[in-house]
Design goal:
heterodimer; A: 18 helices; B: alpha+beta; 4-stranded antiparallel beta sheet; 3-stranded antiparallel beta sheet; 10 strands; binds protoporphyrin IX containing FE; binds FE2/S2 (inorganic) cluster
């Protein structure tokens, strides 16, 4: 929150601002004091906003040509690809945009895990983030159903059937979701409606996410509370705007590479075959960004427990601010946590790889160990670590380790990581 | 709540909230129920299938209510295999006699009871069906024997209209 009262310079500006203080809001956003040591891992918030806008703009234009009907959806997507002016470009941006969105959100989440950004006083920011992530998965899943290819159809069948694991009411819920006795036209039309709606819900949550962020201000690589504004901060504009802009350009290069050079590499070839309720493709896999959870689902031999494990794997993140008992935020000052953090990263990558492999033999064994470790990390290691770990003393301010003497030697060694 | 004696006003508040809740529920229910199967979906209740050309050892797949239905004319070996299984060995114990009234004909939904994929014919460790999605094995009676699926493949309501025609539903 900026400390000064903003007064517009023009007479009209003042007249308007007295009635609707939009200019005060704009001035708050430009002056917003930001820690001066933010590294590039902090640029993904801006990148995510870009991704959301990209999906909304390309989605709206696709919706002008797409037909949500089981008999016409597949053809209408081919029509977009072949006949609509630049339709191929818009669709490829939208389809790869979903992957880019998830790439960015995973980096953003793991950034928070490393620097302890979920800890007090930022729990609400974190929980809103988890809700956004859940809605993103729902949006992407339903979007993938729309082209009505084989993967669309069977992905929809398998995912909606997860609800049938619920005792007693499960079957009723699945029939209600489908609007019939199998995935069919009624399912497609409602998925289109929800796919259209959810991104706007996400947009609303993003506003709340940033609002909640602007109350305590950004966390930073050192993870200490800072005085704002002070020698430790810089105004958002132009400093962060330029840095975010540069990172966004780099990100767009990667994005453009996928769109123009390998637009289908992240998709599945079977989705260019029209949906056929009589034949399941030999190997059904979800989109890459859902693979770790898919691996967890399959690692449990019981239907209900498998679904419970998969959902808990996501929901456990919401409890993270209370599961992590350490008061120190940044992993820079937590030598043990830092190691467990990288083990967790590896664990999730392994789960992702296994999720794409058949669920048998050695793969199944590895999936089970990795699933067990995932829960062990959050339920045992993190709570215990807060009490057992000997942390490195944190500096008093961001500038201290660079300008003043450091309180201890280990700190001096860590100078480099702070300087990033 | 305080120790204050309830007044007429408290009663009015409670009554208004109660009426309000009923009113909201009455509006929400149609909005929820519209998603359930509609009249036209329910109307597609039954299908008749000509099975005269199906040879022993063959399966045909027909679509009923948007779902595949397997109709298999079983060989003598398959029947005896299905009927000799001990009930203790089954995850979902059902006698083959109850699943296939006429032992030659096995009619069931070709839908894996795990998460709804269509299992493959003549595959798996039990000479019946194998579901490629997450590896469920079914025997020659369509009963679950191994893998994550909890139940046997479902036998729908069906009847022989005449020697050559099965009516499903
Ligand atoms: C959170 C933002 C969004 C995500 C993650 C997302 C994701 C997806 C995905 C993964 C597909 C399937 C792409 C394919 O393989 O063809 C898709 C398709 C589609 N989406 Fe979105 N989408 C988002 C926002 C929107 C919005 C706001 C609209 C409309 C206003 C929209 C309209 C469509 C349409 C019409 C299709 C079908 C055409 C096609 O398959 O390319 N999307 N979406
Ligand atoms: S759907 Fe058949 S094993 Fe999962």
């Amino acid at each position: 929150m900026s400390d000064h009262e903003y007064v517009p310079s023009s007479k009209f500006g003042k007249w308007f601002n007295d009635r609707l203080p939009l200019l005060t809001l704009a001035s708050h956003l430009t002056d917003y004091p930001t820690p001066k040591n933010l590294n590039y891992w902090w640029t993904f918030g801006g990148i995510l906003t870009f991704c959301l806008i990209t999906q909304i703009v390309t989605g709206l234009t696709l919706a002008m040509h797409y037909i949500a009907h089981a008999d016409m959806a597949f053809e209408s997507v081919e029509h977009i690809m072949r006949d609509v002016n630049y339709g191929w470009l818009i669709r490829y941006i939208h389809a790869n945009g979903a992957s880019m969105f998830f790439l960015a959100v995973y980096i953003h989440i793991f950034r928070s895990l490393f620097y302890g950004s979920y800890k007090s006083p930022r729990e609400i920011i974190w929980i809103i983030g988890i809700i956004i992530y859940l809605l993103m998965m729902a949006a992407a899943f339903m979007g993938y159903v729309l082209p009505w290819g084989q993967m669309s159809f069977w992905g929809a069948t398998v995912i909606t059937n997860l609800f049938s694991a619920i005792p007693l009411v499960g079957e009723g819920i699945v029939t209600w979701l489908w609007g019939g006795y199998s995935v069919d036209n009624p399912t497609l039309t409602r998925f289109f409606t929800l796919h259209y709606l959810i991104p706007f819900l996400i947009l609303g949550l993003v506003v709340l996410h940033i609002w909640a962020l602007h109350v305590p201000g950004n966390n930073n690589p050192v993870g200490i509370d800072i005085k704002k504004p002070s020698k430790d901060t810089v105004p958002f504009h132009p400093y962060i705007v330029i840095k975010d802009g540069f990172a966004l350009l780099m990100f767009m290069i990667v994005f453009a590479f996928f769109v123009f050079y390998s637009p289908n590499i992240l998709g599945h070839a079977d989705n260019y075959i029209e949906a056929n309720p009589m034949v399941t493709p030999a190997h059904i896999v979800p989109e890459w960004y859902l693979l770790p959870f898919y691996a967890i689902l399959r690692s449990v031999p019981d239907k209900l427990l498998g679904v419970v494990a998969m959902l808990s794997a996501i929901l456990i993140l919401a409890a993270l601010p209370w599961l992590d008992t350490s008061k120190i935020r940044s992993a820079v000052f937590r030598p043990l946590y830092k190691q467990f953090y990288w083990i967790l990263v590896a664990d999730v990558l392994i789960l992702g790889y296994i999720g794409a492999m058949p669920a048998e033999g050695l793969y199944l064994l590895i999936a089970r160990v990795a699933t067990a470790y995932y829960f062990l990390h959050f339920l045992v290691i993190l709570p215990v670590l807060g009490f057992k770990e000997k942390t490195i003393p944190v500096p008093l301010s961001i500038t201290e380790p660079i300008l003043g003497g450091s309180p201890n030697l280990a700190m001096a060694k860590n100078k480099e990581s702070l300087n990033k | 709540m305080s120790d204050k004696k309830p007044e007429r006003r408290d009663f009015l508040f409670t009554a208004s909230y109660a009426v309000g809740v009923v009113g909201v529920a009455a509006v929400v229910w149609p909005l929820v129920d519209q998603m359930n199967p509609d009249a036209s979906v329910k109307a597609l209740a039954s299908t008749e299938v000509d099975v005269s050309s199906v040879q022993p050892g063959n399966t045909i797949t027909v679509l009923w209510r948007g779902k595949p239905v397997f109709i298999r004319r079983r060989t003598q070996d398959e029947i005896s295999e299905a009927r000799s299984v001990k009930m203790e060995d089954l995850k979902h114990p059902e006698k083959d006699e109850d699943r296939a009234k006429d032992p030659q004909w096995l009619v069931m939904l070709g839908v894996c009871t795990h998460l709804g994929c269509v299992p493959l014919n003549d595959k798996g460790d039990y000479d019946g069906w194998f579901c490629p999605c997450h590896g469920s094995h079914y025997d020659t009676s369509g009963r679950i024997r191994k893998g994550p699926a909890p139940l046997n493949m479902e036998v729908p309501k069906y009847e022989f209209v005449n020697a050559n025609t099965i009516k499903i539903g």
